[in-house]
Amino acid sequence: MAEEQAAHRHLLQNSILSAQIDDAKRDRTERRIGQFLAFGIAIMAFSAGTYAIAIGAEWPGALLGGTGVTGLVMAFLNQRRNERPNAQETSASQESDNSKHA
Predict the structure, then answer these.
(1) Residue 47, domain member (yes or no)
(2) Could you tell me if 45 and 65 are in contact, meaning their C-beta atoms sit under 8 angstroms apart?
(3) DSSP secondary structure, 25-90, as one string
(4) What's the pLDDT at 94?
(5) SS3 of 101, please?
(6) Chain centroid to CA 40: how far?
(7) How far from chain centre, in Å, is Cα 73?
(8) What domain count does the chain have?
(9) By the 8 A CB rule, do 37 and 68 touch?
């Protein structure tokens, strides 16, 4: 009976681990797609700003190029800031789980 329960627990833990790995892969793919799209937006904003400056509209060109790049930098910094507390919470919960099983 105990062996069956242990085998069942191991099976559940393996399925949970597989699900977590799949989630991590999907998150990585979503981030990569987001990075490519953000790069495309930055190139378009910078190109539009460069074109506006080239045809003589300096202020609108500077605003187009500057706000596009600034917006992406702010989004990147906010994402990094939001990831840090989640990583700390995850490591704390894993430590508490490990202490329960020890």
Answers:
(1) yes
(2) yes
(3) HHHHHHHHHHHHHHHHHHHHHHHHHHHHHHTT-HHHHHHHHHHHHHHHHHHHHHHHHHHHHHHHHH
(4) 57
(5) helix
(6) 17
(7) 14
(8) 1
(9) no
- The verdict on residue 101 lying in a domain is no
Q: The domain containing residue 62 runs over which residues?
A: 2-93
pLDDT of residue 91: 55
Whole-prediction pTM value?
A: 0.58
The answer as to whether 75 is a domain residue is: yes
Q: Which residue has the tokens 């917006």?
A: 71
pLDDT, block means (10 residues), the chain with 102 residues: 87 92 92 84 87 90 84 78 63 55 50
Q: What are phi and psi of 57, to 5 degrees?
A: -100, 80
Give the count of alpha carbons within 13 A of 68, CB side only.
20
Nearest Cα residue to 62 out of 73, 52, 72: 52
Residue 18 within a domain: yes
Q: What pLDDT, on the 0 to 100 scale, is given for residue 1?
A: 80
Q: Token pair of 61, please?
A: 């060109």
Q: What is the pLDDT of residue 19?
A: 92
Q: How far is residue 44's CA from residue 65's CA, in Å, rounded to a whole number?
A: 9
